[in-house]
Amino acid sequence: MYIRKILLFIGVLAIISSCQKDFFQESGPGNLSFSNDSILFDTVFSSIGSATKKFIVYNNNTNPVTIENITLANTDPLNVYRINIDGFPIEQSQNIKLAANDSMFVFVEVTINPNSSQLPYLVTNKLEFETNGNTQSIELVAYGQNANFYTPMDNIFISGNDSLNFRYFSIDENTIWNNDLPHVIYGYVLIEPNATLTIEEGSQIYFHKNSGIIVGNPILGSNNDGGTLIVNGSLDNEVVFQGDRLEQWYADAPGQWDQIWMCQGSKNNQINYAIIRNGTVGIKVDTLGSSSSPTLEINNTIIENMSDIGLFAQGSFVSGHNNLITNCGRYSLVLNIGGRYNFTHSTFANHYLFGSRNTPSILINNYYEDITGTIQIRDLNEATFTNCIIDGSNVHELELQSNSLGNFNYLFDHCLLKIHPDSSISSLNEENSIEINNDINIFNSTLDQDFMISEESPALNSGKSTTVTLDLLGNSRDNTPDIGAYERVD
Question: How far apart are CA 311 and CA 379, in angstroms?
């Protein structure tokens, strides 16, 4: 089981582990090997500064190799990176013959003005080596604008006679991120057991490609007990999680980073007034926690523009109100393999703008099929939706997958549900809910991602009174509130 956990962690992070001090790329006939897979300039510059690093290129073949071209993959108009190969600039370093079992040094210099608005937070490029029509590359990464940076570090774990090196930024004590500077994550930030990361209002969190936050440590298996994320945003001063590309083209582009993963063992996670956008999975919750305390409480939060899933909960305990989850490539919400859930005054409106979608906005189930083909039951003890909207661009936006051998307890109470009349849902456990099966005008404009209730919406004044008396924008609700995260104010 311990080894399986390690293998799972390797697959999820896609990071390199090795018992050697250096990383060497696997090489076939005619291929090169490198002393590093990437070059990271991790000095924070307070003024214009430069730094130089080197790596070694090896020809481990028994025959000479001709390096036909050495080039930067992307244009570098600000001349941030300069390359020197065995004493010669890159422009004079073409058609290099590297003898069998020989090597050469490559020097990379970077110059950064951290106050330049022309630079992103992370300035990345690739140095490409072309041999025999085959291209190999080394990633170049440097800090751009001033920010708080979190980059991978060595973390050694012992498994039997092997030592395994997992590279991530470890938070192993209670830590506070405030809004003095942006926070830029390259790779993964991992919140260790018994540590809490608290992110204060107004903080801006930027993720590089394939980066994310992991709450708890999945390498530890059954010893992983703890790890907590607390996001303390406030109205008009939300905490924003997004990709690190600052160009306008990326403002709403999905899939720019990985996910926030609350793995098995994490507990007491709280997210309030956050905007989580432009990733692959907004939040994944993989743990039950105690029966009296949710693994995750998420309130007053927007999750948008995810290439896959907005909120993905597996056998966990999640509670939330005043949440909007929209514009996801597959599902807005997945409640997988049982658990316990409670959502109030939330809008799940999946009008995906970046391609077609053949999955419903919400999926709920209480079982899974293991690798042997055996059905494993996981009780759904509660899934209560009160004053919620389930809508989207498909004709049917709710899928219930129940196995009669396990509990499947759900309720839609005063909800607005888009369900096709020919769906497999013959009888729905609901109270005073409204079922729609065509594209009626629920919101102001789904095209403009404006999910305020329209003046002719069936959600208008159709909810029940609850203790959630303010909407996502801080507007007061009356005794007959609108369904969804927003209360219409004329």
Answer: 19
What are the tokens at 446? Answer: 């789904």
31-143 maps to CATH 3.40.50.2000:
no
Q: Which uninterrupted H or E stretch holds 177?
A: strand 175-177
The single-letter code of the amino acid at 154 is: D
Residue 339 in tokens: 């658990």
Measured CA to CA, the distance from residue 181 to residue 237 in angstroms comes to: 15
Least confident of 3-12, 171-180, 418-427, 477-486: 3-12
CB-based contacts of 34, cutoff 8 Å, min separation 6: 23, 24, 25, 55, 56, 57, 58, 136, 138
443/194 Cα distance (integer angstroms): 43
Q: Say whether 196 sits in a helix, a strand or coil.
A: strand
Strand 281-285, strand 309-321: pairing:
parallel
Token pair 């990383």 is found at 23
- CA-closest candidate to residue 475, choices 235, 247, 246: 235
* Residue pLDDT, tens place only, 231-286: 999 999 999 999 998 888 999 999 999 999 999 889 999 999 999 999 999 999 99
Chain segment 473-486, per-residue pLDDT in tens: 999 999 999 999 99
Spell out the domain ranges in the chain: 31-143, 148-453
* Residue 109 burial (CB count, 10 A): 15
Which residues, including other chains, have CB under 8 Å from residue 97's CB and lie 6 or more apart? 64, 65, 66, 67
**Quick one: which of 125, 156, 131, 159 has its CA closest to 60?**
131
Beta strands at 347-350 and 389-392: parallel, antiparallel or unpaired = parallel
Cβ atoms of 311 and 336 closer than 8 Å? no
- The greatest distance separating any two alpha carbons of the chain, rounded to the nearest whole angstrom, comes to 82
Matching residue, tokens 């009626």: 440
Q: What is the DSSP letter of 476?
A: B
Alpha helices by DSSP H, 42-195: none
